[in-house]
Write a structure and sequence with these properties.
By secondary structure, the chain is an all-alpha fold. The chain has a domain of 64 residues: Up-down Bundle (Methane Monooxygenase Hydroxylase, Chain G, domain 1), CATH 1.20.58. The radius of gyration is 24 Å and the shape is flat. 0% of the residues are buried.
C-alpha cells in the first residue's frame, strides 16, 4: 500500500484542525480577561433573565423565528434563478413571478393576522 496517496488528505485534515484550533488558542492567550458581572450574566432573547432557566417563552418568539427562517429560505431560492436567468427564459421568469406572488401573499397574510407584531 502506497501512503503517498494519503498525504494530501492528511495535510487537509491537519490544516483544517490548525485553522480551527490555532485562532482559539491565540485568542485565549493574547486576549484580555477582565470578567465582570455584566459579562458573566446570561443573555437570552434580548431581555434580562428574571426567572429560572426553565421559564416558558412566549409562543410569539418561536413564531417570529420560524417565519424568519421560512421567508429567508424562500428568498434564498431566488439566487439560483438570478444566476441562470438567461438560460431559463420566459418560462423561468413566469415561474419566479408566481413564486414571488405566493410569497408576498403569504407575507401579507401573516402581517394581517398580526403574527409579526411582538406586542
Amino acid at each position: 500500500m502506497n501512503l503517498d496517496q494519503y498525504l494530501p488528505v492528511l495535510l487537509f485534515i491537519l490544516v483544517g484542525i490548525g485553522v480551527g484550533i490555532i485562532p482559539q488558542v491565540l485568542g485565549y492567550i493574547l486576549g484580555p480577561n477582565r470578567p465582570d458581572p455584566a459579562k458573566n450574566s446570561p443573555y437570552e432573547c434580548g431581555f434580562e433573565a428574571f426567572e429560572n432557566a426553565r421559564m416558558k417563552f412566549d409562543v410569539r418568539y418561536y413564531l417570529i423565528a420560524i417565519l424568519f427562517i421560512l421567508f429567508d429560505l424562500e428568498i434564498a431560492f431566488l439566487f439560483p434563478w438570478a444566476v441562470a436567468l438567461h438560460e431559463v427564459g420566459m418560462t423561468g421568469f413566469v415561474a419566479v413571478v408566481i413564486f414571488l406572488t405566493v410569497l408576498v401573499v403569504g407575507f401579507a397574510y401573516e402581517w394581517k393576522k398580526g403574527a409579526l407584531d411582538w406586542e
